[in-house]
Each structure stands twice: as C-alpha cells, then as structure tokens.
Design goal:
single chain; 95 residues; alpha+beta; Alpha-Beta Plaits; 4-stranded antiparallel beta sheet
Length: 95
C-alpha cells in the first residue's frame, strides 16, 4: 500500500532551504519517491495553513520511513532545520 509524505512549510531562510531541496532530490530518487505536489497555488479553506505544501508518494510506509530515517535524508534535513517551520506527516494510502 502506498504512503505519502505531506509537508506544510513556511520558509524563513531561502538559501539553506534551497540547499535542502538540492540535497533531498537524489535521496527521494534513491527511495523511488514521486513528488506529486511542491509549492504551487493553494486555497486554504479551513484551519491554519503554510505558504508551501508538498506531497511525496512512496511505494509503501516502510519505504517512506526508510527514506526519512536514512543518513542521506537526515544530512539534507540539516539544511532545512532553522531555515523554516515545517509540519511533516507520513500517511498510509487508502486501499
């Protein structure tokens, strides 16, 4: 069953966040991820939102977790920490 990273982000320091994006791309490829939405136009209908929203598809919950916990992703993540505020959740897809 597929799984999805869903992230809501406010970027506060674009330069290190850009370094994160460059470093994370190859990690997503390694784990077979597919970026479904990244940035782009949004309409916040309810609740609190953030200006940047990302949805990344993985083949399974195990792959999604393995990607997040990998040393390569954690190294990329170091660029993002302090460069913005993010909420990130992994959701298992519906059957």
């Amino acid at each position: 069953m597929k799984a999805y990273w869903v992230a809501h982000v406010t970027v506060t320091d674009p330069d290190p966040y850009g370094e994160y994006a460059k470093a994370a791309g190859p990690v997503f490829e390694k784990f077979g991820a597919r970026i479904l939405a990244r940035g782009g136009r949004t309409e916040q209908l309810e609740g609190d939102g953030r200006p940047r929203n990302v949805v990344i598809e993985f083949s399974s919950m195990e792959q999604a977790l393995a990607c997040y916990n990998s040393p390569e992703y954690q190294k990329a993540r170091d660029h993002r920490v302090g460069a913005g505020v993010a909420d990130l959740v992994i959701i298992e897809g519906a059957e």
